[in-house]
Amino acid sequence: MISDVPKKAPQQKMLIKEELIVLSCQTYLEKLKTIRRCDVVSPPLSESFWALVGSFTGIGVVTYLSLIQDVPVLVASLGASACLIYGVPAAPFAQPRNAIAGHLLSALIGVFIYQLVGAYWYTAALSVGLAVAIMVGTRTVHPPAGATALIAVITKQDWLFIVLPVGAGICILVLVGIVVNNLAAKRQYPKYWW
After folding, report:
1. pLDDT class of 145 with cuts at 50, 70, 90
2. 3-state SS of the chain?
3. Alpha carbon distance 152, 119 (integer Å)
4. What are the Cα distances from residue 139, in Å, to 5, 31, 87, 143?
5. Which of 25, 51, 126, 168 is the most exposed place for a label (fewest CB within 10 A)?
6. What angle do CA 101, 103, 109 make, to 5 degrees?
7. pTM of the shown model
């Protein structure tokens, strides 16, 4: 009896492998060649002004609460989040969904890995790798959040780290982003919520 299911040809199997990894050194090196230049147009001075106002205000609120009021809402990775939320508020990585979910997932992963295995070089690397993979898989990529997972491991955080400083801190930055970015005539934040 002849099967109706077609068998994969050897050529088809090779195409699948090539889609996953570059198999030749020459092909790999060809990918590094480029003649293009950065095609990002310099923004108007007003964009820099609003980036300054937003970053100063957002990080100012977070550091004031942390340093003066002893409310733990400061984590170093929020500085990079400020760069995205106030510097490029239209970017997908800067949207509330990505900023909040990216940081919370990464903090959860970092704390989980530390609590499960401890603080070692490989757990630090694993926490960042898992955080990036999960953010990509859930469409919540926020690059600064990779640092949040790393910070959770290397500073030996407990479960509260997810809420304070990470959750509260990123929510403050997003709220300030909503207020400040929408004061500018040509900015809209967020572009989408979810």
Report:
1. very high
2. CCCCCCCCCHHHHHHHHHHHCCCCHHHHHHCCCCCCCCCCCCCCHHHHHHHHHHHHHHHHHHHHHHHHCCCCCCCCHHHHHHHHHHHCCCCHHHCHHHHHHHHHHHHHHHHHHHHHHCCCHHHHHHHHHHHHHHHHHHCCCCCHHHHHHHHHHHCCCCHHHHHHHHHHHHHHHHHHHHHHHCCCCCCCCCCCCC
3. 9
4. 35, 26, 21, 12
5. 25
6. 100
7. 0.86
Tokens 């195409």 identify what position? 15
Mean residue pLDDT of the chain comes to 92
What is the residue extent of each domain of the chain? 45-181
Q: What are phi and psi of 112, to 5 degrees?
A: -60, -50
> Which residues, other chains included, contact 109 with Cβ-Cβ below 8 Å and sequence gap of 6+?
127, 130, 131, 134, 149, 152
Q: Residue 4: its pLDDT value, please?
A: 58
Burial of 89 (0-12, 13-18, 19+ CB in 10 A): buried
Q: Which amino acid is at 53?
A: V
| More confident: 31 or 160 | 160
